[in-house]
Amino acid sequence: MVWESGIAIAYINLVVAETIRTDPDWNKVSKYIEKVESFNIPVNNNMAYLHYLHRKNVAYSRQGKYQLSIKGLLELLEILNYSIERSETDHAQRFEVLQQITYLALAKNYEAIGDYKEAYKYKVLETEKITGQAKKEMYKVIKEVETKYDVKAKVREIEVLREQNLYQQKIRYLFGGISLLLLVILSILIYLFKVKCKAALKDMEIIQMEKDEIELQISLKEEQARLAELEKYKTLSEMRLIRLEAEGKEMELVSLRKSKEELDKQIELYSSDLERYEALIAENKERKMTELLIEELVTFINRKLANRKDEYISKLERINDKFIEKLSTSNISKTYIKYCICFVIDMDMKETAQFFSVEVSSVHVMRYRLKSKLNLGNEMDLNFYLCNMLQDSVS
Known about the structure:
Blueprint (H helix, E strand, L loop, with lengths): L1 H18 L6 H13 L8 H16 L3 H21 L2 H25 L2 H132 L2 H55 L4 H8 L4 H9 L4 H11 L4 H8 L3 H14 L8 H13 L1
Helix pairs in contact: 1-2, 1-3, 2-3, 3-4, 3-5, 4-5, 5-6, 6-7, 7-8, 7-9, 7-10, 11-12
């Protein structure tokens, strides 16, 4: 019955508890053993029951019942051997510990009855068991150390790999940053090269314009020389005509008059062509220069001075050919004219220096030179003078 098993287990626990005391009461132990035996508990490999069998046989040994103790220990040993063979690792280890203790108890009992051969046999078995367990413990410790070492090595390997990945990632970022920087620098250089090329093309256009102007002036000088020759010939013809009239040579007089009329027509034609030619030169020169200078300034303002773009462009729209012509008659070069335009639209020194790619001090020098070329005294403000000139050209 269940309650009887519970009582038997209680007495088993009492046996174990009493025998492990420092000074056990063996009479009590014997009574508890009798109670347990009265329940006829079947043999089993329950650890509590096996501990009871061991403590019971120890009690027999302490009471001098060596044969009874040896018999019980041998039965316990059979149960333990059977259990070790069929148990899992954890349970087998506990069975082996109890087996070692049983070997030791058998060796002591045989020694007590004088059977030293058997005592030696079980002492050897107990020693081998201790050695085997020590080897197992040592192997277990070694495995734990190896495991820890392997884990530590793996952790270190992972850390090394992580550091390598981090280093490679930094290298990639650095390479990407350098590539991006080089790309930006290359883009800036290309942009500056294009700006310089565009400025150079504009300068070439102005130079070509000035070259064409010089060629036209040379042609004009040639036409003027030819006209002077024709006028000289006309004068000579008139003098000859007067002389022929005085001498009364009618036939030669008529012929000379016809020649004079043709010469007058030719002179008149040359004079009209010459006037038209001069007007064309002047108009083309001023219009082309004005357009190029204003276009160059507008490009710069759109690119660099966006915050004052509307103000400057509205002032640039007032610049006309007449204003450029007035400056040109003052015997100043194209570069000086560009400075005058910057000053008349109220660009500050820093912006003007940025436009010409020079230092601010160079702009001050140009202002001084302009005042000298325009014959302005120290008391006259250059900007005020240029604004008045522009106002006169507009009105």
